[in-house]
Every structure is written in structure tokens, then in C-alpha cells.
Design goal:
The longest helix is centred in the last third of the chain and has 28 residues. This protein is mainly alpha-helical. Helices cover 74% and strands 0% of the residues.
């Protein structure tokens, strides 16, 4: 996350705080509110559409992460917190399983093994084709005559 993205997200948060219930904002520690007010971007142009729900707004991913963290830490009760954490664990497990399937070393080597097997099969078929060709051997007498001729040519 870049500094600009961070500051723009803080600006979006400050705009969202303007429409939130005062009881929710009171649950956020004053130090955090001060950091958001001090660090937010001063030249970012972001307007909330008051006719839409917050979930329908075009917020940056960083802002959504900040809101999720605020909700988890300050606004939800223990039961909601456990539900959210369980959902996050399930999502992480699904993601890790997808990664395992995608980058499983066994699967990576299967493709390599298959290509090696294919090469072996091609080599065997060429060998078999070569074996089908029959060479006629020269008789011993013909070999001796050829050898003597080669000696005289030198």
C-alpha cells in the first residue's frame, strides 16, 4: 500500500464517519480518530452518495479493510466477532487449499513425468522401427576381399 493510497483511504474513512451514528464513532479510541484526521489526504476528491448503502459505494480496498477492522475491534459483540473470525478462517482455508492444488509438488512433477514418459515411448517406437530394418551381412569371403582391396588403394 502506498502512502497516497493510505492517505486517500483515511480521507474516505473520515467522510464515512460523518454519516455514521455518533454511538459508533464514540466507540473508536480518540487517538485513532486523531491519527485519521491528521494523516488523511487534503486534496483527494471523494464524495459519498447518500442515496446508496455503504456496501454499494465505490470504496477503495484499503478503506474496506479499515472498516472491517474497525467493525471487528470496536463495533461488534463477541458472537458477531466469532462468526466473522470463523468466516475469515474458512475463506483462508479455501484459499490455501486452492493454492495447494495449484502448486502441489506432486502435480508439478506429474506433468514432467508424463512428458518424460512420452519421450520414452517415442524413443521405444523409433527403436522398434529401427529393429525392423534387416541388414544383410557380407559374407566372410567378401569382407576379406574388400580388406585386401583397401590395402592396395593406399
Amino acid at each position: 500500500m502506498t502512502d497516497v493510497e493510505y492517505r486517500n483511504s483515511l480521507y474516505e474513512l473520515s467522510e464515512i464517519f460523518k454519516i455514521l451514528d455518533k454511538s459508533l464513532i464514540a466507540k473508536i479510541p480518540q487517538g485513532l480518530k486523531d491519527i485519521i484526521a491528521k494523516e488523511k489526504s487534503t486534496n483527494y476528491n471523494f464524495k459519498l452518495d447518500y442515496s446508496k448503502k455503504l456496501s454499494e459505494q465505490k470504496l477503495s480496498e484499503t478503506t474496506e479493510l479499515f472498516l472491517t477492522t474497525l467493525h471487528l475491534k470496536y463495533w461488534c459483540n463477541e458472537e458477531e466477532k466469532q462468526q466473522i473470525l470463523n468466516a475469515m478462517r474458512e475463506n483462508e482455508n479455501k484459499y490455501q487449499e486452492e493454492l495447494r492444488e495449484q502448486y502441489n509438488p506432486d502435480n508439478l512433477f506429474k506433468n514432467k513425468y508424463n512428458s518424460v514418459e512420452n519421450n520414452n515411448i517415442k524413443e521405444q517406437s523409433t527403436t522398434q522401427q529401427m529393429q525392423m530394418i534387416e541388414y544383410q551381412e557380407e559374407s566372410i569371403l567378401k569382407r576379406i576381399i574388400n580388406k585386401i582391396k583397401s590395402l592396395f588403394k593406399k
